[in-house]
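Reviewer 2 asked us to include a model.

Predict the structure of this chain.
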Amino acid sequence: QRRLIHARMDKKGIHIAALFICILLAQVLICNHIVLFGVAVPLIIVYFIIRMPIDMNVSLLLTLSFSLGLLTDICGDTIGVNALACTITAALRRPAFYAYVQHDDRMNQVTPDVMTLGIGTYCKYMLTLVAIYAVLIFSTEYFSFADVKQITVLSAGSSALTFLLILGLDSIITVRRDRH
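Predicted model (structure tokens):
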């Protein structure tokens, strides 16, 4: 039974590492170079935080999220904006999850996705984290609330674009997982 537990943990670790690398590469190589209509930037880096198991050790999640944000900052030549936004979003992830899901032992071991939460609950949870991340990114980037209108427009546009991209990405991953 110990081998089975270790095998599951190893498989989960490999999935987390693969997601980390894929999201980092997609954000740095593709998404950082896209701006739609001057108001929407895809911020798919938040998908990593959204998809982590709810029972994941908080220290590990914060470390991974900070690292992902820092690597994105290094590759994108931003000064800690993503590292800060990733860390705060990761810290708010569990309260955001339990805002939409009843707190019980069964839900502690869930990895948030459409299949486990249902489309409505998953979309609310995902949109909450995407919006938090976008607001943090743009308010930190501007480092002032003097241009609230611009921050609001960028946050809303980027949240909508990111939400749609993540929903599409999630449906591809779900279909692929169902086939195996």
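The mean pLDDT is 87. The chain has eight helices and no strands. We have added this to the supplementary material.
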